[in-house]
Amino acid sequence: MIRKSLTVLVIDENHIRASIIEAGLREAGHEQVTVVHDVAGIARRIAEIEPDVIVIDLENPNRDMLENMFQLSRVVKRPIAMFVDRSDQASIEAAVAAGVSAYVVDGLRQERVKPILDMAISRFNAFSRMARELEEARGELEDRKVIDRAKGILMRSRGLSEDAAYTLLRKTAMNQNRKISEIAQSLVTAAGLLDPGES
User: Fold this and answer.
1) Predicted pLDDT at 146
2) Which of 61, 184, 188, 198 has CA atoms 20 to 30 A from the CA of 125?
């Protein structure tokens, strides 16, 4: 399987440190590397470059700079590897909460760039997959609640058993080429309009 070359954005105000990261990336086979030294307007630059992964190197980060980078990582929805010279427990926890895929303290060496980048991408993909699965599970749970409410309405209003109410919902959904949850939501909404006590 051929792996496509990644577009990597390196954000680093220090030119020497940025060149170390860039050299490590190029040595690892990443040819599409853009280095940005000024963090002003970085969100616009990210939109222009559309990188697959972002590497942020903060030589001596202060609290405001870290918070700005964490805000950025919440918004961009891409793997982010962040190198910092020093850190504390609160910063590490904030980085994890912000979705930073790799947070490396005092570990900037050229030969470490590739494995850290690979790990950041893997962690980001795993986290994204879990977030998707969680969202799907929440959606299914909400659908189930609406279907149960619709069954209850049918059971009370038409004197049906639970199985018969579900069968009626399923048959209606099939006839209208819609999801059962959509039919159930329509029924719950209509019942709420006709009898405000139902909603």
Assistant:
1) 95
2) 61
